[in-house]
Write a structure and sequence with these properties.
six-stranded parallel beta sheet; 16 strands; 13 helices; eight-stranded mixed beta sheet; alpha/beta; about 35% helix
Length: about 425
């Protein structure tokens, strides 16, 4: 391309002319000259103004303090502002990004796409340009106002996403600009960019593209962490509710890989067939008496572990379906938050009920879970032992349609927003 050629506008800066990286030594010279100018300005100010300001610093000292602070910030990671950006290593000045904003909780009409400031990576954080984002039941709850993000986390919806590293904060060592990554988020996935602690990033599984990978990490992290809590073992029976969804599909395959048997529930013939096709030994229609179905499938013993997404609605029935010393873990509340529990029956069965949330765990715990997923699940996906769930890809601009599909209950597998 010659000097008169132009390129399409850069997605971040809007530049149309060819972009040539600026040599790093140029910044060193610029720093020296700017520092000298600021210091000189400080001397001039000191000669003319001797009265201290409200801050207690004379003008010259204030200017010198600014110059020294600017030079110090430039030394973090070797560039201005303390972090690196793509292309030439220049200060991080991105245009506003498009994101899904919910100004008032409600139905799908509450979802609007607007421009908002692009986040800046803080120390230990990574800025990622989004390629795709997973759509989860928790997103529907947040849209309705029932599942607010943890304190200090963006209000933008989205618990998992994939993309390409755009910038890194001070102290980040695991990732470089241009790396392809998959993220476990506390929020922010429904946007063109997101920031995330570096420990909550993993590379995509071998042989899996970034769009499919966007719907894998939150599901895998949820299942693996909860199977660790319940201690599912070889030869035991796992009862999975919502067996045709993203979590259910993954949980069935993961349990099978551990040597467990799986009984799954679903609400239609296509979904029941899906459960069986992905490893469930028995698939039960939840419109019928699935408790008796579990007993029959286990020879009257019951399920050793129950992975429950329903909450209050299934509480009593789940206890009935538990085996002796059975363990139930509640990970969703689609059936409500308040139910009746027969403690006498739970006592007879010496059962355990646990409720967990991935979103509200400390950063260090989530980083450990991500590492475990990468070590234990990604190889199983690579060798075909676990197959990603069937996915429905929806353009980012049609986010309302994605929520409508998930709300309908007719979706099989995973929904993914594509940017």
């Amino acid at each position: 391309m010659n000097e008169t050629d132009t390129t399409p506008p850069h997605p971040l800066t809007g530049h149309t002319r060819p972009h040539h990286p600026v040599p790093s030594h140029w910044f060193a010279g610029l720093t020296t000259h700017l520092l000298a100018l600021l210091m000189f300005a400080g001397v001039t100010a000191q000669a003319n103004v001797n009265k201290p300001s409200k801050t207690g610093l004379r003008p010259a000292n204030r200017i010198r303090r600014v110059a020294e602070g600017w030079a110090k910030s430039r030394r973090l990671n070797g560039v201005p502002g303390g972090f690196l950006t793509a292309g030439a290593q220049v200060p991080h000045r991105l245009r506003p990004m498009r994101a899904v904003i919910v100004e008032e909780p409600g139905d799908v009409e509450a979802l609007t796409i607007k421009e908002t400031p692009t986040p800046t990576p803080q120390p230990g954080e990574v800025l990622v340009r989004t390629v795709a984002a997973g759509v989860n039941r928790a997103d529907l709850l947040q849209r309705r106002g029932y599942y607010p993000p943890p304190k200090g986390i963006t209000d933008i919806i989205g618990l998992e996403a994939s993309g390409v590293v755009e910038a890194i904060g001070a102290g980040v060592t695991r990732w470089r600009i241009g790396d392809e990554v998959v993220a476990l988020l506390a929020g922010g996935g429904y946007a063109e960019y997101f920031v995330v602690p570096e420990g909550q990033l993993v590379p995509p599984p071998p042989g899996v593209d970034l769009v499919t990978a966007a719907g894998l990490l939150e599901v895998a992290a949820t299942v693996v962490s909860n199977m660790d809590v319940t201690g599912l073992k070889t030869g035991e029976t796992l009862l999975v509710h919502g067996g045709a969804g993203g979590v259910g599909t993954f949980a069935t395959q993961y349990a099978k890989s551990l040597g467990a048997r799986v009984v799954a529930t679903a609400g239609s013939e296509p979904k029941l067939r899906h459960c069986l096709a992905h490893g469930a030994e028995v698939a039960l229609d939840y419109h019928g008496d699935w408790v008796d179905g579990v007993r029959e499938a286990t020879g009257g013993r019951g399920a050793d572990v129950i992975l429950d997404i329903m909450g209050a609605k299934y509480l009593e029935a789940n206890v009935k379906a538990l085996a002796k010393r059975g363990r139930m873990v509640v990970i969703g509340l689609q059936g409500g938050t308040k139910g009746t529990l027969n403690l006498g029956l739970l006592l007879q069965k010496m059962g355990t009920i646990t409720a967990t949330s991935l979103r509200f765990r400390p950063v260090a715990e989530k980083a450990a879970i991500c590492s475990r997923v990468q070590e234990t699940v990604w190889p199983r996906i690579g060798n075909g032992e676990i197959r990603p769930a069937p996915e429905t890809r929806v353009p980012f601009d049609e986010v309302r349609r994605a929520h409508q599909v998930l709300d309908s209950g007719n979706n099989v597998g995973k929904l993914v927003l594509v940017f």
